[in-house]
Amino acid sequence: MRNFIIPLLLVFFVQADSASGSGGEEALSRLSFPPIKTDIPQPSRVTLKNGVRVLLLPDHELPLITVSAMIKTGAIYDPPGKEGLAALTGANIRSGGTVAIPPDELDEKLERMAAMVEVSIGEESGTATLSTLTKDLDTGLETFADVLRNPRFDESRFELSKAQTMESIRRENDDPSGIAMRELSHLLYEGTPYANRLTLKSVSSITIEDAKQFHRNYFVPQGMIIGVAGDFDEKSIIAKLEKVFEGWQGVDPLFPEVTPAPEKYEGGFFVADKKLPQAVIRAGHLATKRTNPDYFSLRVMDKILGANGFASRMVQKIRTERGLAYSAWSYYLGGRSELGRLLIGAETKTESVAEVVKIMIEEISAIREVEVTDDEIDVARNAIVNSFIFIFDKPARILDQWLTLEYYDYPHDYLLSYRDKVMWVTKGDVLRVAKKYLHPDGLKFVVVGDTESLKDGLSLFGEINEIELEDYRTGEKQKHHD
To answer: How many Cα atoms within 13 Å fall on the side-chain side of residue 462?
Structure first.
């Protein structure tokens, strides 16, 4: 809030001066303020005795502290036939309590302190967070470390998590947008862990012992980075962290080999039958990684093409000019550990699907052939730079960015030079990367809708492949899943 005090005082004094007739403009000319600081705060770094890396970013504005951890693990390491193990393990590390504290008591303890501890495991990493008042830091840290080191894996809560996961699997085909994105991801990453799907069979086979072993394998000091942001003294917090993690050792994890996605661009049209009054369209192909020097030019291209709302070409052509869809978009999402994805999407009337698909292909092709305009590149660059600051509005969010860079071993100046590199992008750069990284003939389209009504229009683009939706309740495949 203090950032807004000076502008408010300025308005007050100028208005008061004008009202008194003493010359508001003259008073205004006498006022001076230091330039607004837009530098990104950088954390200090230490390594604990047991190997845990720590990033520290003090901020004493509020008596709050956030401790975040990233753990080298992820669903990409799920054993074959046990898809869902990482997610279930992550969900139960916190909810199942600790060896010393049953889950209900742990819930009550955190509630009394108005503190929060959360743990989860995603596709490429595990995360853990502690939020606490400064006065409760000692207790909060002890609890946080206990959760990470000694989860109980309470049986009743574990079984509840399994039941909830299996119910969500049963309902997967109720969401047309979810179907389209799931099937597209499977097509793009087929043959790699990124294409794995949770099934009733895989989840039902997971035991508490599986979760305990998964935790032992990956929750070790060597694979953890911790960040602390908020109201603390650096010397004191290091001593506290050394204390709560004292004696915690682990064996270097043996990470299973992750089959990389083959960088190929083979287009195709795939239809999943669903009796709907409209159709869901998702399309895409593989994309480069974020560490590619061309990624900044691709970000600008991305904004122009479809990632900048009404200012982007996809929205203008599909929604504004033709009125074919309420929502139309494209995103060029660079990968971190694996190749990323170019994604394109819209929802439209069944009879308009072919026309929308045609426009999507035309726009992907057009940006590869002619330079974008001066207005387009100015709007795109400014949109990226102006929105950049909003991911750094709180110390904890700033630290999350640094943690992510540390986790993926990004260049140290990645954030610091981000805005400059965006502003250096030229029209020629956009054309060059569009030609190199966009493949209109390599787009895979997944359409969810009434197959019989869609076939005639889509047949103009070539062979139509039918996706048989799996009925998870019977384990059988069926063409129609209404």
So the answer is: 12
